[in-house]
Design a protein that fits this description.
Length: about 290
């Protein structure tokens, strides 16, 4: 194969006002690219979910969910199976339209009126639990394919990487810890390294916010530690939302933890408060 083959109340919007992609690469030709410079972050929050409800055949996957994510924060989302975590991410990325409620990226971008592609180009990247990389291409080539650039056939045939683009790939390889594996085909990476590579592919698109689904499932303890270091290093420059079941991992990275249950927020706060919350212990820990 060649590269061408893969060619809360105070924060509510009504109080502060006077708001990972259908295509593998969100900068393909022929799609409307949203200018991420239009994302208004002046109020300090990057994501506003307010009173979001989603039903599937009578089952309420989300039930008046209200959630705010601040610019540059690392937020962990936990909850039992069926709590609504995946549906929440589907709403954020445009895969699922809510029956009721509002979802805004910054102050003015209404996610419920945007396509998955437009949401990706606006700056929301999503990493699924199972890594979606190109196994027969090298680490370098995977990152090159994910770069924010024109993906039409002619450009891919004749255009050479600029020095700035090569520097960016090198930078991302260092961020994800794969600089020594640049020429290695991705299929030969360990499970953890494949997860890091996919995070790197999202970083090549320079997202404002990353949604990361169960990043340490199946990892060794050493890989989990490196993943914790990676995600915490990304916070600040990016807003990072991590959905995870491993409580030890959550404890190692979380400042604020949000607990979902039956489609709404059951509790929110620092890890110690969450662990000592009687309702959380009952519905999440089974006590």
């Amino acid at each position: 194969m060649t590269l061408l083959d893969d060619t809360r109340q105070a924060m509510r919007r009504d109080k502060v006002f006077d708001f990972v992609a259908e295509e593998r690469f969100p900068f393909a030709q022929g799609r409307r690219v949203v200018d991420r410079n239009q994302v208004d972050l002046t109020k300090g929050a990057i994501l506003y979910l307010e009173d979001i409800s989603v039903s599937f055949d009578g089952f309420k996957a989300l039930n008046e969910l209200t959630l705010y994510i601040n610019v540059g924060e690392l937020r962990c989302i936990i909850g039992p199976n069926g709590a609504g975590k995946t549906t929440m991410m589907d709403v954020i990325t445009g895969k699922t339209r809510p029956d009721h409620g509002t979802a805004f990226f910054g102050q003015v971008m209404d996610l419920t009126k945007m396509t998955e592609y437009e949401i990706a180009t606006a700056g929301i990247g999503r990493k699924f639990q199972k890594p979606t990389i190109f196994p027969q291409h090298s680490v370098f080539q995977n990152l090159e394919l994910a770069m924010r650039t024109n993906k039409d056939v002619w450009t891919s045939l004749v255009q050479q990487l600029s020095g700035e683009q090569r520097d960016r790939i090198d930078e991302v390889q260092n961020i994800i810890g794969l600089q020594d594996h640049s020429s290695l085909e991705a299929e030969h990476l360990s499970h953890g390294q494949k997860q890091w590579l996919e995070i790197g592919m999202l970083l090549m698109q320079d997202p404002l916010m990353l949604l990361v689904d169960e990043p340490v499932a199946g990892m060794t303890h050493q890989e989990m530690d490196k993943t914790a270091e990676l995600l915490t290093s990304l916070a600040g420059k990016h807003s990072v939302v991590v959905v995870e079941h491993d409580m030890d991992f959550v404890r190692s990275i979380a400042n604020t933890v949000t607990v979902l249950h039956e489609g709404h927020v059951l509790a929110e706060g620092v890890m110690d408060d969450i662990q000592n919350n009687a309702q959380v212990r009952e519905v999440y820990l089974g006590e």
